[in-house]
Every structure is written in structure tokens, then in C-alpha cells.
Design a protein that fits this description.
Number of helices: 7
Mean pLDDT: 95
Order of helices and strands: EHEEEHHHEEHEEHEEEEEHEEEEEEEE
Low-confidence stretches: none
Radius of gyration: 19 Å
Number of strands: 21
Distance between the termini: 18 Å
Length: 320
Amino acid sequence: MYPLKFSPILKERLWGGTKLKDVLGKPIENDITGESWELSTVKGDVSVVSNGDLAGKSLQELIDTNTIDLLGKSVAERFGTDFPILIKFIDAKKDLSIQLHPNDELAKKRHNSFGKTEMWYVMDANKDANLIVGFNKDVTKEEYAKSIENDTLVDLMNYESVKEGDTFFINTGKIHAIGAGVLLAEIQQTSDVTYRVFDFNRKDKNGNLRELHTEMALDAIDYEKKDDFKVAYDSKSDAVNTMVDCPYFKTNYINLSADMKQEVVNRDSFTIYMCVSGSVTIANEFGEAHIQKGETILVPAISKEIVLKTSEAKLLEVTI
């Protein structure tokens, strides 16, 4: 139950690029890699341990055999042996499709899945890069449907310019898209359910338009204009700064200039660290592991103390 590292699951995407390799050092061999899945138990894409005595075992195997020790009692009571979080790094060389995700109720009914609440932390952004987050005005279902029919959806979108460190919280139902030139860390519920509603009329490598989910999206969209997505957070050095605290995950920002010791005996949850700058050695009473920018580590819930050893690192800390 030492700090666990996992082999990245790399995904080619129509809109992907090379920043996962050039900026984060991922072992990609093409110029259209869009995603690195860092921690996943999504069927067909289950993370495998890459360090220590447990190397070669899958995350799901470890959860099945060490449920309470790995997840924590309260997490296991809520989710059983389902890992509730999916962690990714995403490189958008081109604009992603405009999309949204259903809530838990709709996702369960239609897909037997969790919904997909997520957050983004921008790690790198080209000049003039932006995100689409929500509508730029209140929209009726009829207005929305007409914009889809007339190919004018982009006129209803809210565009947000971004820079490194900007953080966004994306509720289920909120229409959104990652813009070209953005590299970000994504923390989300374990779900791969996405309703794509506009893809800029692009064609895949076989010359086909990608599938849209126009009808399914109609009842899943939040049509109100809401300014509830930009996350304001403190960035005090050598302190735990709250970013997002929602029913599905809690994320803190930790900007380290020296070692830090955390007592976590009462946490009753696993702890995930995503390194977004610098490097750090993460230790518990069972062992330690080193990560650098673009790497992720999972510390099992059985840990009573976590020590972060570094002279410079910026971390996203995720718990339930």
C-alpha cells in the first residue's frame, strides 16, 4: 500500500497534438495524441501499476482485493469497488467538439453509468487560446434546436480566454469545449458518457463526420447563462489551498517550496497527486515514489501520514 504510479493510457484524437510529449514527457509516437489517462477503471481502459512490488497489477485488481485499505471505508460504502474518479491530461491542438455530459440520474437511466461532473486546471495555453463554457445568454430549448439546425450554435457560446493556472468547474448539463492550444489537467467522475452536439463539420481520417448526439442532448442541457464555472482559489506557498469541494471530489492546490508533512489518519479516502510543475517525492509509512510535471500518483487510504519532499513543486491534491 505504498504510493502507486501507473502507466499512462494514451489516446489518439482527431484534435490531439504533441504537447503531452513536448511539455509533459509522455511516450507518444505520433502528432495526434490528445489524452493521457492517468488513473482509470473505465472498462477497456484500466490503469496498471508501474512501480514497486505491485507492478503489473491493475487498479481494479487492487481495489477488488484491498477495497477498504485502498479506497477508504466511507468511499467503499458509497461506491463499492467502483473507482469514482477518472484523471487525465488533455492536449487540444485543435478545438474539441462542443459537448456536454448528463447528470447522474440521466446517465444511470440511459447508460448505467455515473454522470460526469469535471474540473479543468490549465497547464499551458497558447496566446489567444480559449475555452467554451456555457451560453452567452439564457437560451430556450427551441432557440438551441434552431441554432443546431441553422449551424449557428457558436453564436450562442460563451468564450473564456485562459492562461496557466486558470481553473474551471464544469457541472453536468453545461455545454463546453476545450479550445485549440490548451493543455490541461482534468479531474472528473468515472464516466465516458459525452453528448457531442457540434464538431465544426470536421471529418475523421476516413472522411466521415463524427457522430452527434443531438436528440439525447436536448433533455440534458442547462440552458441558463450561469457564471458559476471560474474557480477562484488561494495560491499560498506551503499550504493546502481549497479549489473545488463538490459531492464527487475535493481538489486542493499545493504550491511547495519545501517539504510538507500531512496527517491523514482521519481522511478515510485515497489521495491523488497530480504534479503540474516541478517534481516531488511522495512517501507514506509503506514506501515512497517520485513524480515530476505531468505525472500522477495514488496514495492508498490506509496511510496515516503523507510526506511531500521537494524544493519546488505545484500539485493538485484530489480526495473524495
